[in-house]
Design goal:
The complex is a heterotrimer of chains A (about 375), B (about 170) and C (about 290). Chain A has about 375 residues and is of the alpha+beta class. Helix content of chain A is about 20%, strand content about 20%. In chain A, the strands form eight sheets. Chain A has a four-stranded mixed beta sheet. In chain A, strands 15-16-17 form a three-stranded antiparallel beta sheet, with helices on one face. A two-stranded antiparallel sheet of chain A has the order 1-2. In chain A, a hairpin with a 4-residue loop joins β10 and β11 (about 210). Chain B is built from five helices and three strands, in the order ααββαααβ. In chain B, β1 (about 90-95) and β2 form a beta hairpin. The termini of chain B are far apart. Chain C is an alpha+beta fold and about 290 residues long. Chain C folds into two domains: about 25-150 and about 200-285, Immunoglobulin-like (Sandwich); about 155-195, no CATH class. Chain C has helices spanning about 5-25, 145-150, 155-160, 180-190, 190-195; strands spanning about 30-35, 55-60, 60, 75-85, 85-95, 110-115, 135-140, 205-210, 220, 225-230, 235-245, 255-260, 275, 280-285. The radius of gyration of chain C is 23 Å and the shape is globular. Classes of the chains: A alpha+beta (about 375), B mainly alpha (about 170), C alpha+beta (about 290). At the A-C interface, β10 of A face α5 of C. β5 (about 85-90) of chain A pairs parallel with β3 of chain B, so a sheet runs across the interface.
């Protein structure tokens, strides 16, 4: 075990390999407040990558309702229980990570899902915490609540899958930080399936190897966002590159949301993997549940996000999500519009901050008739 | 001359009557239930499949079409697309556009309509769930479902795996 | 004593001695003693194994490198070996009450392996998978592979009879089955197979030849020349592994051999295994 620095938990921690950061790190921001669980992302990935034999049950991308949804069953609950209690203080995580809590004989604390645990990928969909009674009304936070959590592999800075593989068949690319399982080298020991806290490696019974989300690396290599990002109806996703906190560039969209405005947070940072998919937390869910899932930065993130209407820079950048297939490397707001730029500071896309509004009066004076909006 | 196949008057009823799984749902108040659209309704062929196959799968033996219902669908109680309006040329009705009243054929009044459609239904318990009518659904038996939560699930819902003062976490 | 009585007594005694000989188990040996025969048996149930001496090898945990096995499972493996002068066949039998030959999430195959040093020398490579520049040759048998060779199909329905799949894009009717375009598309959805990873099949044998130079380095050999066959017994497995005679093993020359056994239901795979250290192996002197 080596000692490495994990900025998300604000301290050093143990990891199987020494610290080795890639030249660029693939990262994403998902705005939970916009997700409608249409599952278009799930199908985009399934059509592109997992329509092969042995891949039938795999959902490299999945969308589960929280709190009663899981894929596989109980994936986060089981690990939270094994790792409990988890203690945060002054923004730093004081408890153990899954590396530090590794049981004797193992490199990582983990558990093995059964095949039946994958059999109900849509369990808990739209099931709310609490019971709606007659007379219920809408307020924020909601009196009964649920939200949708879209998940892909987090291409962690300290992947548990990579650490756990006894034969080094999993590697993290130095050019983009994307984590891949070498399909030529894997022998199907399923240590990675046991180790990944997010359960985003999947064993293929027919090839005898395990497979995982590849961040559509052939697209990222060409500066194009992955399939699940491109096809997202709700435009909740943005792919890009994240810098380390001390090197954050405010005109880098991911850096701005994660490091500068701190409105996007990692998933279960206490597990210790430094995951690189960051979530804007749902404004309507209780903070106690959200602290457990995204860490103590939730309160501030929600506050910032809810004030976006009077925050033109933040609102503008959020408006760039889903506007182009290309990866936006830099961005800037200019008055009433926001532009996404490539590295050469050339515009890829420009969107207005507000939709133009045209008002038609109810009475059309020219023709002397009342305008009606039916049928 | 080919013998006309005698049509069982209840044939349609057998394959079109909705049979579906009902479960507790916390998002509607007591006395209210809900079902969503589901593409894969039952067909006579799928009903034949679930009756004949040893595994009971509602799969048409000839076309491989697989239904999500043993019989019926969410459309079982909806009216046909044709309105019950008498198609008379003397019917007095409001025009489609504007506020005037007219008489006779009008597409909006006389033509098929997709939605909305309403019906009054009676819901009866057909049989217990589970394989051979026994047992809880696995996620429920594992304590992960609403109203079946085990201690860990309750803790999870409350964010209870974090310790310490929430105000001091920042 | 009357002659007829004496003859009867002698005959009775001879019968008793003969009966005792027939019921006597094969000789147990401190080393693996390889007997020489004209041909190698091809099946674990072949009668040729009956009078071959048995070496009972106690198994120990692999607890040297993570992931380690902490709870011992299979306690011993019984080994018999026959050579025809060119190749050697080893018969491994061990107790395993639960048959594990179905692949799946959290499911692991019963398996066994035979390991020889690639080069016999006074200074042997470490028995735990060899060392850098001092490789070991391993022949691995897996129950899941045996099931496929014995006829289990290569589709999801063979693993989950109730499964139903509506469509694989590479089976869409416009694609002519077996055409280059169709095969290329099928390969794209199976990168392990496209890369020639032997784990992915298609499979003709239930065994695989591998080379290792230390823990975590095991790699399939360029080709698998070994053969094998495993059969379920009343309380376990009986597996035959046949390969060419390893370096240094010849009449009047000894080598060393090691074995490993995996019990699938104990989540044993890869480094989580029961194993032996080096055991001397010798070809029985010609009579």
């Amino acid at each position: 075990m080596a000692r490495v620095h994990n900025w998300q938990i604000g301290r050093e921690m143990s990891y199987w390999y020494p610290e080795s950061r890639p030249k660029r790190q693939f990262a994403a921001v998902f705005d939970i407040n916009k997700c409608i669980a249409c599952q278009t992302c799930t199908l985009a990935c399934k059509t592109t990558w997992t329509s092969g034999k042995g891949q039938e049950y795999m959902l490299w991308n999945n969308v589960e309702s929280k709190p009663f949804g899981f894929y596989p069953l109980g994936w986060d609950l089981k690990l939270l229980k094994e790792l409990a209690p988890q203690h945060w203080e002054a923004g730093a995580y004081q408890g153990r990570t899954i590396f530090e809590a590794a049981p004797a004989g193992n490199r990582v604390l983990g558990w093995r899902p059964d095949d039946l645990d994958y059999a109900n990928p849509n369990v808990g969909e739209d099931d709310c915490a609490g019971q709606i009674e007659n007379g219920a009304s809408l307020q924020v936070p909601h009196m009964v609540w649920f939200f949708y959590l879209a998940r892909i592999c987090n291409h962690c800075s300290y992947p548990a899958c990579l650490a756990s593989c006894p034969r080094g068949a999993i590697y993290k690319r130095s050019e983009d930080g994307i984590v891949l399982i070498d399909q030529g080298r894997c022998r199907g020991y399923q240590e990675c399936v046991k180790a990944c806290p997010y359960k985003k490696t999947f064993f293929n019974s027919l090839t005898g190897t395990s497979e995982k989300c590849i961040a559509c690396f052939p697209k990222m290599e060409q500066g194009l966002q992955p399939q699940c990002f491109l096809n997202c109806i709700g435009k909740i996703r943005l792919a890009g590159w994240i810098s380390r906190p001390e090197k954050a560039q405010p005109d880098n969209p991911i850096d701005y949301l994660v490091h500068v405005r701190k409105v996007a947070l990692p998933l279960f940072p206490q597990f210790g993997l430094e995951p690189n998919v960051y979530y804007i937390p749902p404004v309507h869910a209780p903070l106690t549940f959200l602290h457990q899932m995204f860490g103590p930065g939730v309160d501030q993130a929600i506050k910032t996000y809810r004030a976006a209407a009077s925050d033109p820079d933040l609102a503008g950048l959020l408006g760039l999500f889903g506007c182009t297939e290309r990866v936006i490397l830099r961005w800037r707001r200019q008055g009433d519009s926001v532009a996404g730029l490539d590295d050469g500071r050339r515009e890829i896309v420009r969107v207005p901050m507000r939709e133009p509004i045209h008002i038609l009066p109810a009475f059309d004076a020219r023709y002397g008739v009342v305008r009606t909006n039916c049928p | 001359m080919a013998q006309q196949r005698k049509r069982d008057p209840l044939f349609d009823y057998e394959f079109a009557r909705l049979l579906c799984r009902a479960r507790y749902y916390p998002g509607t108040p007591r006395g209210v239930t809900r079902m969503w659209f589901n593409m894969y309704g039952a067909t006579p062929g799928s009903v034949e499949g679930q009756a004949k196959r040893p595994d009971g799968l509602a799969k048409n033996p000839r076309t491989n079409y697989q239904a999500m219902f043993r019989s019926g669908s969410h459309q079982s109680a909806t009216r046909g697309w044709l309105k019950p309006t008498l198609m008379t040329d003397s019917l007095v009705r409001k025009n489609l556009f504007g506020q005037s009243v007219g008489k006779g054929f009008l597409s909006d009044v006389h033509c098929p309509t997709g939605a909305p459609r309403e019906a009054i239904v009676k819901i009866t318990r057909a049989e217990p769930g589970g394989f051979e009518g026994k047992g809880l659904w696995r996620p429920a038996s594992l304590g992960l479902r609403p109203r079946y939560e085990n201690e860990d699930m309750k803790k999870y819902l409350a964010g209870g795996f974090l310790s310490g003062d929430p105000k001091k976490r920042r | 004593m009357q002659r007829w009585l004496r003859t009867s007594l002698i005959l009775a005694l001879a019968a008793l001695l003969l009966a005792a000989c027939e019921k006597a188990p094969p000789k147990q040996t401190a080393e693996v003693v390889v007997v020489t025969r004209a041909t190698l048996p091809a099946d674990p149930d072949d009668a040729a194994w009956k009078d071959v001496p048995i070496h009972v090898a106690p198994l120990i945990l692999q607890d040297m490198v993570e992931p380690r096995l902490l709870k011992p499972s299979t306690s011993e493996v019984r080994v018999r070996a026959i050579t025809d002068g060119t190749r050697i066949a080893a018969l491994l039998t061990w107790k395993d009450s639960i048959k594990d030959d179905l692949p799946g999430p959290a499911r692991f195959s019963d398996a066994c392996a035979v390991q020889f040093p690639a080069k016999m020398a006074a200074d042997l490579p470490a028995p735990q998978m060899g060392e850098k520049d001092r490789p070991v040759e391993i022949t691995l048998w897996r129950a899941t592979w045996q099931a496929v060779v014995d006829g289990r199909g290569d589709t999801i329905k063979d693993l989950y009879p109730g499964a139903t799949v509506d469509h694989y894009p590479f089976q869409a009717p416009p694609l002519e089955k077996g055409s280059p375009v169709q095969r290329e598309m099928e390969a794209r959805y199976s990168p392990a197979r496209a890369l020639g990873n032997p784990m992915a099949g298609p499979r003709q044998r239930p065994v695989e030849d591998l080379i290792a130079e230390g823990p975590g380095t095991i790699t399939p050999a360029p080709t698998t020349a070994s053969e094998g066959r495993g059969r379920r017994t009343a309380d376990g497995w009986s597996v035959l592994i046949a390969r060419r005679l390893p370096d240094g093993l010849a009449p009047a020359k000894r080598s060393q051999v090691a074995f490993a056994v995996w019990e699938g239901s104990q989540q044993e795979a890869g480094a989580r295994k029961m194993r032996t250290g080096w055991i001397p192996i010798v070809i029985e002197a010609k009579r």
